[in-house]
Amino acid sequence: MCARNSSPKAFRRAKTEFGRIPPSGKIASFTESKEGFSGLIDVGRAGELIFGKILSSGKPSIGDKVRPVLRIVSKSPPIEYGFSWEIE
Amino acid sequence: MAENRVFVLGAGSSKFGERWDFSAESLLKEALANSGFSGAPDSLIVSSMASGEFISQEHVGAFARNALGFPEIPSLRVEAACASGGVASRVGYLSVKSSESRVCAVAGFEKMTDIGADSAERTLSLASDFENEGRLGATFPSLYALIARAHISKFGTTDEELASVSVKNHRNAMKNPFAHFRKEITIEEVLSSPVVADPLKVLDCAPVSDGASIIFLGNESAAKEFSESPVEILAFEQGSDTLSLGKRTDLTGFRSTKTAGKRAFERSGIPKGKIDIVECHDCFTIAELLALEDLGFFGKGLSGRATLSGDTSVSGLLPVNPSGGLKAKGHPVGATGVSQIAECFRQLSGTSGNQVNGAKTALVHNVGGAGATATVAIMKGGAP
After folding, report:
1. In this model, does residue A2 exceed pLDDT 50?
2. Does the CB of B182 have a partner CB in chain A at under 8 Å?
3. Among B45, B79, B190, B335, which is least packed, fewest CB within 10 Å?
4. With a cut of 0.90, is the ipTM above it?
């Protein structure tokens, strides 16, 4: 991850929070809006589903396996990072 | 010290809708005038979710007190997202119950259409877990769509069943003079309306509205002094769930509703089978189905079928949202929970525009966020 050009706040967040890349998981639920697909991902930790954008050319299904991909959520300072999920 | 019984002495609402030509102050005055209540409250609780964002006004307790023309009584703002009105009403209930107040006014308002739709959507999304969900693009339509998808996957709920909630509530709003939408719609129209967040379409979603509501709560002596048809609040409970949808172990129900409902039934002594009317939080069609299941009126996965078959219509087994609900009556966030109490007051005193014949008891359910907060009140008509 490169936080070199971002603000100290984003750099801290990137180091502490998203420095821990979540494992691959399965789609627990999903929706489609004008922004594309998004969903809750079950990464196998009890009581923890991770919300994120799902990168898929077609309609996904509950149970599809996905892996995390780092992305920039906001380009305007402070730059913020998050994960999208890519169908495996 | 003995706890007081608590009564609704009077209630009023402004018309809900896109009220561009009226200020928040005017809407509050309109609600007060429609209440017809002439007593003097000794305290005021105000419900507004985001008046700073919507109308650039904080210090809302003082703002509303001045708008309503009340003297220098204590005033307090309560915020709990879309459950602000329910929680504010509960604070007022506890104030009378504990003898802090003899007559407490609870006023809720929101003026949402002065800012654009995108700004309104972002403001509302601040009530989600913004760090983990809202910041990453989640909006309330998308969060409730995730719930709907899980419900569909687990129980086989159909799009027609979801749509039937909206059709029923629009039909009910035809008789509510305060409703935002007084227009009947069909299942076909719901299904063919534009998708907002699949499987939820535009006509599955409550609107952004302007509006205000006010209720007056009082103890037994105040009820005898100020009201010819007081309605008692037998129980008013609040439950909680995680702020983040992702922290839940089950996406197809709200622990907040289950907890508040269970406590309310226990404290009121009224069993589920004796409830004549339900006003519940249908911010999206799936939300009404969840509420009816979480409150125990229908088994899990069965409320959609019941709605489609007419069991929750005004003439059905359990009339649900005779006011039109949030979907058609409108959803000015801070006013919503207060307006639900106001509608049940009208129902139980026999003055509703969409009167349920012979109704003696009512349950009111209000939700904040994606179920992080819920309140449930059980009310009963009849003189003290």
Report:
1. no
2. no
3. B79
4. no
Cβ neighbours of B355 (radius 10 Å): 14
User: Tell me, what's the pLDDT at B182?
Assistant: 97
Q: Nearest CA to CA, how far is A2 from chain B (Å)?
A: 19
Count of CB atoms situated within 10 Å of the CB of A77:
11
pLDDT per position as a tens digit, B87-115:
999 999 999 999 999 999 999 999 999 99
B200, closest residue in chain A (CA to CA): A31
Classify strands A65-74 and A80-87 as parallel, antiparallel or unpaired: antiparallel
Q: What's the burial of A1, exposed, middle or buried (CB within 10 Å: 0-12/13-18/19+)?
A: exposed
Tokens of B310: 């007419």
CA distance B98 to B113: 38
B162 touches A: beta carbon within 8 Å: no
Map tokens 């009201």 to a residue: B227
Helix ranges (H only) for B174-310 are 187-192, 220-226, 255-268, 285-294, 303-308
Distance CA B345, CA B8 (A): 7
Q: So what's the pLDDT on residue A9?
A: 53
Q: Packing angle between helix B140-155 and helix B117-125, nearest 10 degrees?
A: 70
Residue B53 pLDDT greater than 70, yes or no:
yes
Q: Which active-site residues of B does the annotation give?
A: 82, 331
The count of other CB atoms within 10 Å of the CB of residue B87 is: 23
Give per-residue pLDDT as tens, B166-225.
999 999 999 999 999 999 999 999 999 999 999 999 999 999 999 999 999 999 999 999
CB contact under 8 A, B153 and A62: yes
Place of tokens 């023309």: B69
